[in-house]
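WP5 quarterly update. Target: Nucleoside-diphosphate kinase. Source organism: Mesorhizobium australafricanum. Length: 178 aa.
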Amino acid sequence: MTGTVYRLTAKDFAVLEAMLMRRRALADPIAPMLERKLAASSVIATAAVEPDLATLDSRVIFRVGGGSSETRTLVRAEASAPVGSGLPVGTWRGLCLLGMSAGQSTLAERPDGGAEPILLEDVAYQPEAARRAAQDRAAGQRGHGLKLVYSAPADDWPLGGRGKIRQTEGDDPGPSAA
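Structure tokens (predicted):
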């Protein structure tokens, strides 16, 4: 994670800060990486997030070194995604990808001291962009969103019968429990 400026949402930044506090207390080897990530990150408003920015719960397509492309969802913890589909941000690869934009690459430091190039090829799904698109679609609908599918004439009664009034004047049906 050298020489790269990362952009994080306030939520993603807060998740990493909380993770750093826990990892420092446990003397986890990823704590220094978390510190560098937070120091190299700028916080942006959720409304300003571009669709090609990797945020939490984004589905990303990336390549490590000269390897083949992998598709994973950036998650907080491994248990929050189906086996093999999630990439926790508590791992060096997940931490490195969070806050990168599609097409951006960096040299990702491993906890053992080595480093590998990592390239974010594409962001296939991003929750913030999907939410904005859904809100735009809802705002574009006219009226209240309801659609009349059938309208019967006022003098047309079901099964050809006329409606009957249950109660006539002066006819008290008594208590409802009777």
